Amino acid sequence: MSLIREKQKLRSFNTFGIEASCDFFTEINSIDEFKTLVNTETYKNNAKLIIGGGSNLLFTKDFSGLVIKNNLKGLEIVSEDAETATVKVGAGEVWHDFVMWCIDKNFCGLENLSLIPGCVGASPMQNIGAYGVEIKEVFKELEAYDMVTAEKRIFTKEECHFGYRESVFKREYKDKYLIASVEYVLTKNPKVNVSYGAITSELEAAGVKFPTIKDVSEAVIRIRKSKLPDPAETGNAGSFFKNPEISKEKHDQLKRDFPEIVSYPLPSGNFKLAAGWLIEQCGLKGHEHKGAAVHTKQALVLINKDHATGKAVFELSGYVMQKVFDKFGVTLEREVNII
Fold first, then answer.
1. Strands 21-28 and 63-70, sheet pairing
2. Cα radius of gyration rounded to whole Å, the chain
3. Where are the domains of the chain?
4. Closest CA to 175 of 90, 59, 66, 39
5. Model confidence, pTM
6. How many CA atoms lie within 13 A of 231 on its CB side?
7. 27 Cα distance to chain centroid
8. Which CATH architecture has domain 75-187?
9. What is the set of active-site residues?
10. 303: CB partners within 8 A, 6+ apart
């Protein structure tokens, strides 16, 4: 088992670059290591926090307990036929590296999710999505281990209860399981999804008429790099807020008051609003608070501009939420996990 360290600084383990620390810290590289860890007194007697790439975390204080870095690796093709390939990937693998691996093998389904920060284990936890695609569309199952007994359990797609940036692991099973690996079923006869307007425009600008999955991936990467700050340069956690869902009645009222509002109809009859547009209309792009700021190119992103504390970022998010509610009567929800 990896060494359990005391009073570990966590700045390098969260993409916001927030200064925080924990009482105890360890890394697991195999399930055997996890099973050994579960039987230690340090594990039994402390609160526990599992982290991967740290790209969806905001530390507003030090963590009183044990932080466990999930380093479970592995990439394999479980099965394949003429149409599909089922791949199994360790929770500790870097998500973007996994997507690039799929593209190299011409496995289709994840190219729209290129350059999303973080590790594979986080993908089913919040049903990650971007540019018209969510992982639930290609998800098969995942292997997880009970945080108390270390017993293995397989979760099917149905058992994960995927929703918009939601799953059972953010609700009733929050902090109850260690995700070890995820299986996806990808297609070998690529049918690209370019329904998202920005991708279409990017491909047209590049003169691509018959895009491959590699073309789509490269277009997504260019779009993300043009809009989103690199966590290695500017601390952030990507999209800080969810795009809110509202009723048709509320949408109709907002459409009358704000004809330019950006919205998308949902199968349920409700509408999804672009949170970034709402924030921008409140004049908050570039707004700063104690070293934290709303990103100037994408208002959905909050950044650690100048040695901000996690508390300052959290306060800024609350200010943004209040301003949006005051102007539109719409409640934003934080997507980032607040510690």
1. parallel
2. 21
3. 5-70, 75-187, 235-338
4. 66
5. 0.89
6. 22
7. 21
8. 2-Layer Sandwich (3.30)
9. 165, 239, 335
10. 229, 234, 235, 236, 292, 293, 294, 295
What burial letters (b/e) apply to 253-275, b meaning 16+ CB within 10 Å? ebeeeeeebebeeeeeebbbbbb
The low-confidence residues of the chain, meaning pLDDT below 50, are none
Long-range contacts of 158-166 (CB under 8 A, 24+ apart): 160/124, 160/127, 160/136, 162/124, 162/127, 162/134, 162/136, 163/127, 164/127, 164/129, 164/242, 164/243, 164/245, 164/272, 165/126, 165/127, 165/128, 165/129, 165/242, 165/335, 166/126, 166/127
The predicted pLDDT at position 55 comes to 87
Paired strand residues for 241? 334
Sequence-distant (≥ 6) Cβ neighbours of residue 266 within 8 angstroms:
245, 272
CATH number of 235-338: 3.90.78.10
Q: Answer for the pair 237, 15: CB distance below 8 angstroms, yes or no.
A: yes
Which pLDDT belongs to residue 189?
81
Backbone angles phi, psi at 67, to 5 degrees: -95, 130
The CA-atom distances, in angstroms, between 303 and each of 60, 183, 226, 317 are 14, 33, 16, 11
User: Domain 5-70 belongs to what topology?
Assistant: 3.30.43
For position 163, what pLDDT does the model report? 84
Nearest to 165 by CA among 199, 135, 132, 198: 135
Whole-number pLDDT of residue 264 = 87
Using alpha carbons, list the distances in angstroms from residue 281 to 191, 244, 315, 327. 36, 15, 20, 9
- In the chain the first and final C-alpha atoms are separated, in Å, by 26
